[in-house]
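Running co-folding for 2-acetamido-2-deoxy-beta-D-glucopyranose.
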Amino acid sequence: MMGNTRLITALMMAVLLLHFVVSFSTKTTDINTDQSTLLALKAHVVSDPRNFLTTNWSVDTSICNWVGVTCGSRHQRVKALDLFNMSLSGTIPLDIGNLSFRTWLDIGYNNFQGLLPVQLTNLHRLNFISMSDNNFYGEISLWIGYFPKLQYLSMSNNSFTGPIPSDMCDRLPTLKELYFSDNKLSGKIPIGLFKCKVIQNIFLAFNNLEGILPEEIGNLKMLRTLDLRGNQIQGIIPQQISNLTAVRVLYLSHNFLTGII
Ligand SMILES: *[C@@H]1O[C@H](CO)[C@@H](O)[C@H](O)[C@H]1NC(C)=O
Ligand SMILES: *[C@@H]1O[C@H](CO)[C@@H](O)[C@H](O)[C@H]1NC(C)=O
Ligand SMILES: *[C@@H]1O[C@H](CO)[C@@H](O)[C@H](O)[C@H]1NC(C)=O
Ligand SMILES: *[C@@H]1O[C@H](CO)[C@@H](O)[C@H](O)[C@H]1NC(C)=O
Ligand SMILES: *[C@@H]1O[C@H](CO)[C@@H](O)[C@H](O)[C@H]1NC(C)=O
């Protein structure tokens, strides 16, 4: 009897110890992965004239204290990365895909350039992406649509090319804000775009979009802003545009549209 109790106690201790060792090591592995990922990003920054990262992103302090980095309270993993307007130049490394816990990514208003790595699509928890006002290029369809929780997407003022994927809204059902102005997007406005049921802001100005403005535009009951300026959209403005009762701002100028609203 005594022996059994002792054995059971010893077993329980062993299980507890094992649990502790395993959870401790997973935790440090995860935070180490995030640290090496951020260091890889830092190594790809070729110019940091305002010294945001140079000294601050130091291995002597926890990454959770680094400027622009926010960690989740429960997991101590990087949750948000906000490098907006830091005058950084460089490229985005493939390793970015290892920051798997991230929900917020803002690298807008810098001088990042090049192709976005396809590994970015690993970050399926993202609900906010801003890469606006950089010098990225490449087909937008290559990596858009892998973020099922995305609410905010801004890619304005880069050199992205290609058509707007017609299944975009099937893949991004929660999208509320879409900023694609000032790029080199081409092709027609896909009817699929009007399946984004909760979308409020659509900015597609100053691209090379062509074709007509489909009458399905009238489906967007929550739409507040539509900016299509400076494209080659033609034909008659569909009557359904008057179904957009939530609209506050409607920019259609510098196209080949006719008709009345
Ligand atoms: C990111 O993950 C890949 C694949 O697991 C690995 O090869 C690479 O070394 C990792 N990068 C960093 C910076 O940890
Ligand atoms: C890095 O920047 C953050 C936020 O500005 C600041 O709280 C922290 O003390 C800085 N760390 C170092 C080592 O400079
Ligand atoms: C970027 O930062 C500079 C310097 O702090 C500031 O003057 C400027 O207004 C900022 N720009 C934006 C778009 O926030
Ligand atoms: C485009 O982005 C650059 C930074 O890369 C900025 O200097 C410029 O003012 C932006 N242009 C517009 C029209 O917003
Ligand atoms: C949308 O507008 C059209 C034309 O003005 C109208 O016939 C139709 O009933 C409207 N649909 C809805 C759902 O409001």
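Result summary
Residues 229 and 242 are 19 Å apart (CA to CA).
Residues 20-27 have pLDDT under 50 and may be disordered.
Job closed.
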